[in-house]
Amino acid sequence: MTNLKVHGSAPLDLEGGLASLRGDCARMVPHWTAPDRSTPHPVSPSLIHGVTVPPTSARLLDAMSDYGD
After folding, report:
1. Deepest of 6, 31, 43, 60, by most Cβ within 10 A of its Cβ?
2. Which of 1, 3, 10 is nearest to 28 (CA)?
3. Residue 42, burial from CB neighbour count under 10 angstroms (0-12, 13-18, 19+)
């Protein structure tokens, strides 16, 4: 379901082109916030155990020509 409620004085333009889309985005910029950047923490090799694939998934991938033929 599409919510067509408009808050503010901007006209609703459902058939607009790229210029209309860019205008809509420019009006939304003050509402968007970017999260602070975080640096990933190193993971100890003892915590890395590899990947476990269920046998049914392994058979499915083995039967696909893109994955191993």
Report:
1. 60
2. 10
3. exposed
- State pLDDT tens for residues 2-35: 555 655 565 565 677 888 888 888 898 888 888 7
Q: What is the per-residue pLDDT for 6? A: 54
At 69 the three-state DSSP class reads coil
In 10 A of CB 16, how many CB atoms?
A: 13
Q: Categorize the per-residue pLDDT at 62 as very low, low, confident or very high, splitting at 50, 70 and 90.
A: confident
Distance CA 54, CA 51 (A): 10
Distance of CA 4 to the CA centre of its chain: 23
* Closest of 11, 14, 16, 5 to residue 27, by C-alpha: 11
Query: Which pair of structure tokens corresponds to residue 66?
Result: 């893109």
